[in-house]
Amino acid sequence: MRKLGILAAFLGLVLWPAGPASAQCLGLGGVNYTPPLGVTCALPLTQNTVSVTGTVGGPTQVVAAVAGQKIYVTSINMIGAATATIAFTYGTGTNCATGNTALTGTITITTAGAGVTIGDGNGVVLVVPAGNALCTTIGTATAPGWIAYAQF
User: Fold this and answer.
1) CA quadruple 87, 90, 94, 97: dihedral positive or negative?
2) pLDDT band at 134 (very low <50, low <70, confident <90, very high)
């Protein structure tokens, strides 16, 4: 160890003593790990993409619930056929009918062909609590698109 210290001093390096344990990070697949010293935890990246038909109506399930797993939405891209409204909710049962809870307020697309893009797939924009499905409600006009997410 003394030789290592002398070599470090010669090379102008500083040997830092081990500090307190780093915080645990949540990795892909839900695996906990301890990052190297000085490295921060990464957010979940996209694992899946689902098409949204964009049909006007009540809540429609777009990502199914899995017991004990959260849904991490990493990107949303929707295009309105005309002035359209979109809202995202979560819940259980058919089309989130039980415990339907808002994740967003109403998002309005004001012009035909215009759209809304939220996130780029490299971080989380919405989190659905474990054991719940992700649903969307589209009103006024069709607004097809896609949602990218990770689930663990």
Assistant:
1) negative
2) very high
Strands of 6-144, DSSP E: 25-26, 32-33, 48-52, 57-63, 71-79, 84-92, 98-102, 107-109, 115-118, 126-128, 133-139
Global pTM value: 0.73
Contact residues for 114 (Cβ-Cβ < 8 A; gap 6+):
79, 80
Q: Which two tokens stand for residue 16?
A: 């830092």
**Domain containing 68: what range?**
43-151
Domain count, the chain: 2
Say whether both 26 and 50 belong to one domain. no
Same-domain pairing of 65 and 30: no
Q: How far is CA 138 from CA 12, 20, 23, 97, in A?
A: 62, 49, 40, 15
Over residues 22-51, the pLDDT tens digits come to 455 655 555 566 666 766 665 557 889 999
Task: Give yes or no: residues 33 and 49 share one domain.
Answer: no
The lowest-confidence range among 10-24, 46-60, 133-147 is 10-24
